[in-house]
Amino acid sequence: MMDEWVLYLLFGALAGVLSGLFGIGGGVVIVPFLAWRFPLRNFPPEHVMVIAVATSLSTIVITSIASIHAHHHHGAVDWRVVGRMAPGILVGTLLGSIVADHLPAYWFKLIFAGFLLYVAARLLLKQAEQGRELAPGIWLFGLAGGGIGLASAILGIGGGTLSVPFLARCGYSIRHAVAISSTCGFPIAIAGTLSYIALGWNQPGLPSPHLGYVYLPACLGIIITSTLFAPLGARLTHRLPTERLRRYFGVLVLAIGVKLLWQALEGPI
């Protein structure tokens, strides 16, 4: 068990550095790692993906608090927008967790593989996100929040890869879009974690120790080091060739996405 704890601590550190370095949510790397690791520990195959997603969301609860504090300190959070998106986020996250609880492993892997390919494309192509193509309004924010919450609960992410492009298209600067997105990651993580705990509460055969679908050793190990190492990643952006590393990381995410897609197409695990 000690080796397992060390592994989660090491990967939490890696996830924290990558998150700070590239500005992506930890779920992009945490979910594939857990989906690879859990079968090696003989977790129930039909529950591997949902446990990975639930555990990933549980780590975001803590990491998002530190992010919110930093962005709020710099006055970058538009709380009015957060308030408009939050109701949709909560409803969408609840629905997304229910959908995920009934998804076969085949579809879970297929959906997440598609998401990774999308993230890889954004990393490699570095598409411009600025523009005022959408007219922001209370209904648009509410609907967008619902869609972002739904997708985030299924994918185990804080929603940044979806909400930042949306907010940028509404005319917000990248600085403010990232700040608002990071703040919205907290209700996503809270609602998703509580939903997965409730949905998995009486589920037989889940690995212990756990709270519903949340596997506690992985959750705690990743939280401890990812929180500590995320600021290091942010500092490294000013010292390393970030654009070159961004392309390398994009290739890695692409490879992981293709592998997961291949596994899904091979058939149910």
List the helices and strands and how they pair.
Layout: H1 2-22, H2 27-40, H3 48-73, H4 79-101, H5 105-125, H6 138-155, H7 160-169, H8 174-199, E1 210-211, E2 214-215, H9 216-236, H10 242-266
Helix pairs in contact: 1-9, 2-3, 3-8, 3-9, 4-6, 4-8, 5-10, 7-8
Strand content: under 5%
Tell the overall outline: globular
Q: Order the strands across the largest sheet as they lie in space.
A: 1-2
Continuous helix count: 10
Alpha-carbon distance between the two ends:
25 Å
Task: Please state the CA-atom Rg, rounded to the nearest Å.
Answer: 17 Å
Report helical residue fraction: over 70%
Description:
Helices cover 76% and strands 1% of the residues. It is mostly helical and 269 residues long. It has one domain (2-266). The chain has a two-stranded antiparallel ribbon with strand order 1-2. A hairpin with a 2-residue loop joins strand 1 and strand 2. Helix 3 runs antiparallel to helix 8 (174-199) and helix 4 (79-101) packs across helix 6 (138-155). The longest helix has 26 residues, at 48-73. The radius of gyration is 17 Å and the shape is globular. The mean pLDDT is 86.
In short, what is this structure?
With 269 residues, this protein is mainly α.
Features:
single chain; two-stranded antiparallel ribbon
